[in-house]
Design goal:
The chain has 191 residues and is α/β, with parallel strands linked by helices. It has a single domain, classed as 3-Layer(aba) Sandwich (Rossmann fold). The chain has helices at 12-21, 32-36, 48-57, 61-69, 79-84, 179-189; strands at residues 2-6, 25-29, 40-43, 74-77, 85-89, 101-106, 117-121, 130-134, 139-143, 148-153, 156-162, 165-168.
């Protein structure tokens, strides 16, 4: 099983390392040919508008939408969550999104870069707390029918799953704890 990491911006190397620790083969994805060769895809953090524009410029947006609609598992972290969200609320939309995850998010809801923080989360399905790193993180303000909340922070969902989609407001790849990547691998194996 090959799991791609979208390699246009963000913590690509860290996600690849976490996938390896979760006993998966991770590959960097920059082209539609590389996308066609993976079974699942991680959409890393970064700047969602920039990533969306690069997806469009490198002609990956439509192939990725098609693969997602056909059931390819996706895991979006931070900006990846924004790209997967059906709705964006607030002053700034995120053009060139994939959609497909029935949530509404607000970009940068937890503050600016200097207001970044870490918190221990209780995550459904994991033993022990998971240390989450929030950097200019989006907030999930609404979850649709069938979207399961796996973790919350300060009363708001920060980790959600629906069918073949997993998304977090935070950066799990920055912690050295590969349990969420392993959860994503298990999601793929359960198909």
């Amino acid at each position: 099983m090959k799991i791609g990491v979208l390699a246009l911006q963000g913590d690509v190397r860290e996600h690849l390392s976490a996938l390896e620790a979760a006993c998966a083969t991770g590959v960097a994805v920059k082209t539609s040919e590389q996308l066609a060769g993976v079974d699942a895809l991680v959409l890393p953090g970064g700047e969602s508008t920039t990533i969306g524009k690069l997806l469009d410029r490198f002609e990956l947006l439509e192939p990725l939408r098609e693969r997602s609609r056909a059931g390819m598992p996706l895991y979006g972290t931070c900006a990846g969550l924004i790209l997967m969200a059906d709705d964006i609320t607030g002053d700034h939309d995120a053009p060139h999104r994939l959609g497909g995850l029935d949530v509404t998010v607000r970009r940068n809801a937890y503050g600016r870069q200097v207001e970044s923080f870490e918190s221990d989360l209780e995550v459904t399905g994991l033993d022990g707390a998971f240390r989450a790193v929030f950097i200019r993180a989006p907030a999930i303000e609404r979850v649709g029918d069938g979207v399961e909340v796996l973790a919350s922070y300060d009363g708001r969902p920060v980790l959600v799953r629906r069918d073949n989609l997993l998304a977090s407001s935070f950066h799990p790849e920055m912690t050295g704890d590969a349990r969420l990547h392993a959860m994503f691998v298990d999601l793929l194996e359960a198909r």
